[in-house]
Amino acid sequence: QSLPQQKLLTWLSVLECVEVFAEMGTARVWGEMGRWTIIVLIQLAKAILRLLLLLWYKAGIQTSPPIVPLNREQQQPLHPQDMEDNSSGKDQTYVGRRSSRVVRSLQNTPSLQSRHWGSPQQREESQSRRVEELNQPSTPLGLQETIAESMYITRPLLHLLSLGVWGQRSWKPWLLSAVLDISSLSLLSDLKDLNRRERAELRRRTILLLYYLLRSPFYDRYSEGRILLLLRLLADYVPGVGFVTRPLMDYLPAWQKIYFYNWG
Known about the structure:
Blueprint: H1 3-56, H2 72-75, H3 80-88, E1 93-95, E2 102-104, H4 120-135, H5 143-166, H6 172-188, H7 196-207, H8 218-237, H9 242-257, H10 259-262
Antiparallel strand pairs: 1-2
Pfam families: Pex16
InterPro entries: Pex16 (IPR013919)
Subcellular location: Peroxisome membrane
């Protein structure tokens, strides 16, 4: 990735990290008008950055979060002693005669901070596989797939515009957003040879369709009573589950009021 593309990904990641805090803080300071203003500005900035990545830098299907979180255990380099043994040709493992189990030899045990439960070969394979996944180029998108990804990127802006036109109690913003999400996924489903990161992103978007059960006005009219009844039954009749379901029941009304929790 070029340096400008990395900067765009960094700014996009920062926006996704602070959007909920910005919405809640602005609502506390400037009220409802300030809250919707900051929501529009953040969604507009995110859409512009994503469209630049899609159309100018040909970034393909964009993941969320844009920058994959660092797995420090997998990224941790091998112990210096291990590398010295590799270079000197020493055998790092011992194979049991009866069990054929591969274990690390006592002479090559690393320090406590660098220990892991897998064999050196397993760790090297996982590290190399991780590097290959991160370095895989994005799958080129045709016209149909570019339109589908553009629909997914602009969907929040169209939803906000429809909210301003028809109001928050109308079904039209909910239906418009659902149609755009489903259409985008349908068009992208024809794309073959996706890398692992892109397949995971499409699965994540498919699972997020369940959020429409929790989004107003569907939640207010249909889902709320059934969800609360199910959580109450689980809390009353399944031992131990109440520690999770009762706080969740108390949290749902507050969660519903935050736009970026539902629609971001």
